[in-house]
Amino acid sequence: MRPISLVVALSSLASAALNTAVRADTFTNPVVYEDFADNDVSKGPDGLFYFSASNMHFSPGAPILRSADLVNWEMIGHSVPTLNFGDNYNLNGGVAYRGGTWASTMRYRESDKTWYWIGCVNFYHSFVYTASSASGPWTQSAEIPTCYYDCGLHIDDDDTMYVVHGNTNVNMAQLSANGLSEVRTEQLFHYPTEAQGIEGNRMYKRNGIYYILNDDGGTQSTFIYKSTSPWGPWTYKRLQANTPGPLPGGGTPHQGSLIEASPDDWYFMSFTWDYPNGRIPVLAPITWGDDDFPILTTVNGKWGATYPSPLPTVETPPWTGTDSFNGTLLGPQWEWNHNPDTSKYSVDNGVTLSAATVTDDLYKARNTLTHRVHGEHPIATIVLDFSNMADGDRCGLAAFRDWTAYIGVVRSGDTYSVVMQEGLTQNSTDWSTVSTGTTVETTAVEKGRIWLRSSMDSRGDGSKLVTFQYSTDGTSFVDLGDAYTMNTDWAIFMGYRWGIFNHATTALGGSVLLESFTQT
Ligand SMILES: *[C@@H]1O[C@H](CO)[C@@H](O)[C@H](O)[C@H]1NC(C)=O
Ligand SMILES: *[C@@H]1O[C@H](CO)[C@@H](O)[C@H](O)[C@H]1NC(C)=O
């Protein structure tokens, strides 16, 4: 993603920087203008903060971000290397849109120097993945035959592992000493009378008191429970209800994590629902009342657009820039739509995408490489060498979600055309494909190299339009097709992504070379 010289390990920077860095006076929300939902943020053994997020049907699953200051973040890896939860996760015999990883938990356990990630998959069983370093490698260590819905792991001072989970009813599970099975479970409480449900469970301990943080999307509320025992009795307060979020087009942040930034200085990391972009992390300080319940710090009754910085600033590499795919590995910013066919791509100073599926349906094609859109007005440009396409192949750059549009190249016989295709849509009940889209405009191009570009307004209160351009020299870009209106419905949960694809419609055998990706 970034020039090598900038990719300095944050952990080595952190200790030096903490001594010398100047604390920026304030930070601005969102802390990352990208789709990182359902965060579980906690401190690692190195004193840095680790942020686990959901990415549903994208693979690898459960992205991890890291920060020294809660404001500057970088992606470092994933807890779930492969979505091995059924062949539909390989786009074989079905699809797994909106499956995969969601509302899971990740914590470090000091006693065995191990990171644990726990999440319910397919509303069925929960999986435990472990690693000695958050950046991996991670391995699947256990399957627990209970769905820990929206779970939060807490490792107590005596090393006991608790998992709080559930909607409607909140339950407490105690895990075995090795953390890989359940030894006790109890229902703790039903959702509060002023709510319509409850989820997003997280568990903490402060000054010997246990806390459960959770939320209700129906009333846009956040609740906080406390008790002197993990088994209760629990009393609660509403942390907030319907507090306007910091982005004009975004909803009320209500789900998230409590974080102790420095001794007894606490923050709430939540996220605002801001489609087409996605669910975007936002941060606010909290204080504690005399009753030992937390209080959200608001500005004139709303989330602050800015607040005082929690900690000295430690910069991370920029989120935008050019990826020339140096070396032979993809950076953690890249996630595939479902599990990739690893025999059909290679990275070597560029990404060779061999057609992996014969289909006329992009939603069923394997090996679509995706990247989150960044910021309010993201623009992506890819350089593609399509000389090796087979007859019938389609490749391109998509604004990819359950309503999709793209600019691409198609080969028909010895004719190559650039096309703008829109209205590829999915049924948001069963994720079947409703339409493979219609071609709005097409023009012939010479076989060779092409620059494909897409520009979008990703703001929740913006135009929600995405447009497409191409160039044959990398300098002058030509508009193709029309402006496509993106979907802001939440049903698929994930926000829009850039999707880079190559699939066959006749026979496998062709490939394209993705030379670079630039996002500004
Ligand atoms: C790595 O990528 C950067 C940015 O795209 C580029 O400037 C640099 O030359 C590349 N380095 C190598 C060794 O390929
Ligand atoms: C979507 O799928 C559901 C469940 O299979 C079906 O009942 C419904 O008719 C479908 N809707 C459309 C628009 O195809």
From TrEMBL:
Q: Give the record's keywords alphabetically.
A: Glycosidase, Hydrolase, Signal
Kindly indicate where the leader peptide sits in this chain.
Answer: 1-24
**Pfam families this protein is in?**
GH43_C2, Glyco_hydro_43
At the top level of its lineage, which domain of life is listed?
Eukaryota
User: What's this protein's name?
Assistant: Beta-xylosidase C-terminal Concanavalin A-like domain-containing protein
So what family is this one in? Belongs to the glycosyl hydrolase 43 family.
* InterPro entries, per the entry: ConA-like_dom_sf (IPR013320), GH43_C2 (IPR041542), Glyco_hydro_43 (IPR006710), Glyco_hydro_beta-prop_sf (IPR023296), Glycosyl_Hydrlase_43 (IPR051795)
- One term of GO molecular function: hydrolase activity, hydrolyzing O-glycosyl compounds
Q: Which GO terms describe its biological process?
A: carbohydrate metabolic process
Q: Which Gene3D superfamilies does the entry link to?
A: 2.60.120.200, Glycosyl hydrolase domain, family 43
- Residues forming the Beta-xylosidase C-terminal Concanavalin A-like domain are 323-507
